[in-house]
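Input (structure):
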């Protein structure tokens, strides 16, 4: 009898790696709970090359294990199994298994915004453990995109300046996933699978997944 997955798939924008990870977890819910690169590629609708690269990182990090090989139409195919379930979010790892840490500061800022009635970028930086310049850039970008509202606009620069007092717009307050500023200087909102500015949400999701975000 097949096992049921413990958690639903992630909603919103999905990078290639997210789709591969969800395919891995679907195979884990089946009997036998093993898979090949070719099976993952078909299930996730991702080409075999990026599937193979991601599996290398997952194996190096201990999330999947190589459990053997099998013959299929005179071809040797490597067989893998899930070794450590990271939950619904795809592990963010490099090919050598090391963790991608970019974006954690952004997630911390977004979480803090949702709990505050109002804030300056200085206060946000202190709560999230990021540089004030990072918080200022994030607030400014989200303000231009309509995610933040300026309660009291700032004026001046340096020690004599007054920082803008922000609040998170009500329409975005319940969004669990942090909008990201990519290196293309566009904001990607994974909650709605869209770039706030420009086109190419899937490419932006892939860029975020490998650390292409402002930190």
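Output (sequence):
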């Amino acid at each position: 009898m097949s096992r049921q997955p413990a958690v639903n798939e992630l909603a919103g924008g999905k990078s290639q790696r997210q789709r591969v990870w969800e395919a891995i977890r679907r195979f884990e819910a089946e009997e036998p709970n093993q898979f090949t690169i070719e099976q993952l590629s078909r299930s996730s609708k991702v080409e075999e090359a990026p599937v193979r690269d991601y599996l290398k990182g997952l194996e190096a990090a201990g999330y999947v294990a190589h459990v053997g090989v099998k013959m299929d139409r005179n071809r040797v195919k490597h067989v893998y199994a899930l070794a450590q379930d990271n939950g619904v979010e795809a592990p963010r790892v490099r090919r050598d298994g090391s963790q991608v840490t970019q974006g954690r500061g952004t997630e911390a800022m977004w979480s803090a915004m949702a709990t505050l009635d109002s804030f300056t970028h200085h206060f946000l930086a202190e709560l999230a453990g990021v540089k004030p310049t990072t918080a200022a850039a994030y607030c400014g970008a989200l303000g231009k995109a309509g995610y933040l509202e300026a309660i009291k606009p700032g004026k001046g620069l340096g020690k004599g300046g007054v920082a803008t007092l922000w609040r998170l717009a009500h329409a975005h307050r319940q969004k669990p996933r942090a909008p990201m500023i990519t290196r293309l200087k566009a904001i990607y909102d994974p909650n709605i699978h869209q770039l706030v500015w420009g086109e190419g949400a899937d490419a932006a999701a892939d860029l975020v997944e490998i650390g292409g975000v402002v930190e």
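Notes: The chain has a mean pLDDT of 84. The chain has two domains: 1-99, 104-209.
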